[in-house]
Design brief:
eight-stranded parallel β-sheet; 45 strands; eight-stranded antiparallel β-sheet
Length: 721
């Protein structure tokens, strides 16, 4: 590695500075947005966007939703280098030191983040045989007690310290955002392989290595909510799911016919359970024809496709159709596409044959414009005028030695392909819909996973499995994902486990039931089934709130379930309670994930908390031992907030879009506008009272000590006298 030390300021503007290095590279630092710096280092031609090929520019645009520079800073020369001041009062400062090279970020004069000092250089590059940079490394200093969050799904504790992760290898379940409670976040912007060594080589350093000709790193300065906001604005906000996707899903089983699925669905409904989405099993229901370049609905499984579209997809229920960009090997179409160069290839140019169980197939090269267009547009045509979701039916593992049309291979191809596949399917599922609403269900992460939140998580049917599931969900959602779904399977021998699992699922993005008589809640006794129905009723009443959280995520980047460090960064005591979470801004959920009926609940400081079940008020900053039978779950409302609930319904076909709410629950004196879909409720405070508009016709459950007076379209909440 060649160490970068000496810098010379070459150019300074209000939005960026360029420094020359001894090796002929340029270090370019941009004020990308307020509190966001972008560091790029490489040869001049590699940093000149005007010299990028169209292909390279298209790849870059896939990663960033916001490419323009919207911030400004002031560059000031100092004795040992330069200071770049950002923020309304210049309170965010980057100090650049030359010889030796050093970066240090300050917020309100407090050191937030700095490059490591215990190495020959904290910035280095590696050259290939042609003396071109092909790798970069930057090393950051970690405080002794600093915790690092994000970077995807984790099996153990949320702190990533001591770990090594690789961006393109599926075993790491990687997502590209890292952040610290010190007040910084990092995003490594590359389709090539990025490795994160988080105190895994040295106990107090964090090395990020780019296997790329350019180092491209975004640094966010702020608290975790500000980082989430800036990150999602930079990378792309979450897409909205359709309303009908928010109900109970029923998953077709392998070799189960549609008639069998329909009969089981009807049995559930007759037994008093809701079913709003059918999720079809693989293989793809939108396969390529064997002898011509066409994608059509699989009539062998569905019968007449026109009838299926008219009777099902354009009906009242929501559907999720599996699809896959594979072409069966040995068919006339495979040979035709191999000749055209529309399939991913071996180095020789022959189509690469992938194998999954008994299947052998080629993968459509979605990096080729004509192939991508055919794939997306045909799905759009098939789903037009429907509210139909799509699922990626099989995992896609692209080994080294596979090539796309423009020579992308290895890590770049693995990450590029996942981006293109998800982007094309979301565009197809949301085609023609305003506002944009679509859904792509899949099991793996991509670099753009924050844009399409419906990721299906596996869950072992045990208490340990439930705890692992929650850790997976919270760690992924602290990495930029809005939310996830999982399958909920019954076991007649353990109704308590099912009720605890369902209680957790109620306070998540959503869940799926297997279309298997032995895995459905109907296996339990009547008393258990009544508890299950009550929990499902609560879930449906919460849907306006859940959709409100997702709408909020499109503005703030904050997820549905928020781990305690993300929700309460300044309350250090809260961070130890890794199996508690905030469900949106209003509800603290402390699920019981063992055989007991007891939970040790920490109520974060700074707010009071109201027990949703008993209306008991607790001061924050304390631990309570909480008893909760298995028909419920410990949930606390945050003082000053309002929870808006819909009516009791058994199907989203009964959802009245003109009257989405039935009642509101108040946790103390209302201070904040509630989070709810299509929110029209506004809270204003004046002279010790709260005045609320938008509660016409709704029942109001106020907290003890408050009185409610309606004045036309306005409600006044005041203290009892």
């Amino acid at each position: 590695m060649i160490h970068i030390n000496n810098l010379a300021l070459h150019k300074s503007t209000a939005s960026y500075c360029e420094f020359h290095t001894e090796q002929g590279n340029i270090l370019r630092i941009e004020a990308h947005a307020n509190g966001v710096y972008r560091l790029r280092c490489g040869l001049p031609k590699k940093l000149d966007d005007a010299q990028l090929s169209l292909r390279a520019q298209q790849r870059a645009d896939l990663l960033l939703a916001r490419t323009e520079i919207s911030g400004e800073f002031e560059c000031e020369a100092v004795d040992d280098g330069w200071r770049l001041k950002q923020g309304n009062a210049g309170n965010i400062v980057l100090h650049i030191q030359s010889n030796p090279f050093r970066l240090a970020f300050y917020h309100d004069e407090r050191l937030i983040l700095q490059t490591a000092q215990d190495f020959d250089a904290s910035l280095a590059t590696q050259h290939d045989a042609d003396e071109q940079s092909n790798a970069w490394s930057i090393i950051w200093q970690l405080a002794a007690d600093e915790t690092i969050y994000g970077l995807g799904r984790t099996d153990g504790g949320f702190n990533r310290r001591g770990q090594m992760l690789v961006s393109d290898l599926s075993q790491f379940a990687y997502l590209p955002l890292a952040w610290s409670l010190q007040g910084w976040g990092l995003y490594a912007n590359s389709l090539n392989r990025v490795s994160h060594h988080i105190a895994s080589e040295d106990p107090d350093s964090y090395r990020i290595q780019f296997e790329d000709s350019v180092l491209d790193l975004f640094i966010f300065i702020g608290d975790p909510s500000e980082i989430a906001n800036q990150y999602s604005a930079l990378r792309g906000r979450a897409g909205q799911p359709p309303l009908k996707a928010m109900g109970v899903w029923l998953q077709q089983q392998e070799a189960q016919s549609i008639d069998e699925l329909a009969a089981l669905s009807e049995q559930l409904i007759q037994a008093g359970y809701p079913v709003d989405t059918w999720s079809f099993a693989g293989p793809s229901l939108v396969p390529f024809q064997h002898d011509k370049l066409s994608l059509d609905l699989d009539e062998q499984r569905l019968g007449d496709s026109r009838r299926f579209v008219n009777d099902y997809l354009k009906g009242g229920r929501h559907y999720c159709l599996p699809t896959f960009p594979g072409v069966i090997a040995g068919t006339p179409l495979f040979e035709e596409l191999e000749d055209r160069g529309w399939l991913l290839t071996e180095e020789s140019g022959k189509a690469f044959v992938f194998k999954h169980q008994k299947e052998q197939y080629g993968l459509l090269d979605l990096s080729y414009r004509d192939a991508y267009r055919l794939w997306q547009e045909r799905h759009e045509q098939l789903l037009e005028e429907t509210e139909t979701a799509l699922s990626i039916v099989m995992p896609i593992e692209i080994p080294d030695g596979v090539y796309a049309r423009q020579e992308e291979t290895g890590a770049m191809l693995r990450q590029l392909y996942a981006l293109l596949l998800e982007q094309s399917l979301f565009a197809a599922s949301s085609y023609g819909r305003t506002p944009t609403e679509g859904l792509v269900l899949r099991a793996s992460f991509s670099l753009s996973a924050q844009r399409t939140p419906f990721i299906k998580q596996a869950c072992e049917q045990s208490y340990a499995g439930l705890q692992q599931l929650l850790r997976h969900q919270l760690s992924a959602q602290a990495s930029g994902i809005v939310g996830q779904m999982h399958e909920l399977r019954a076991d007649i021998k353990d109704p308590n486990l099912y009720l605890r699992a369902l209680s957790l699922a109620v306070f998540s993005l959503g869940f799926i039931l297997p279309a298997d008589t032995q895995g459905l809640p109907t296996v339990f006794d009547q008393a258990t089934q009544e508890k299950i129905k009550n929990l499902m009723t609560l879930r449906y009443r919460l849907i306006p709130y859940v959709l409100g959280i997702i709408e909020d995520a499109t503005r703030t980047g904050l997820p549905v379930q928020r781990m305690m460090p993300l929700a309460f960064p300044k309350d250090k005591a809260a961070h130890d309670y890794e199996l508690q979470f905030m469900f949106g801004p209003s509800l603290l959920v402390a699920p019981i994930l063992d055989e007991s009926d007891e939970a040790l609940v920490y109520l974060p400081e700074g707010d009071a908390w109201w027990d949703v079940h008993t209306s008991t008020r607790y001061e924050g900053g304390q631990l309570i031992q909480y008893h909760c039978d298995n028909h419920s779950i410990p949930v606390f409302g945050r003082e000053g907030h309002i929870l808006s609930l819909g009516p009791e319904i058994l199907s989203l076909n009964d959802f009245n879009s003109a009257r989405i709410l039935d009642e509101v629950w108040m946790f103390g004196m209302p201070e904040h506008n509630p989070v709810v879909m299509r929110n029209k409720i506004r809270v204003m405070q004046m002279q010790g009272s709260s005045y609320i508009k938008g509660l016409e016709g709704l029942r109001i459950l106020q907290s003890e000590g408050l009185e409610v007076k309606r004045r036309g379209a306005e409600v006044r909440i005041s203290r009892e006298r």
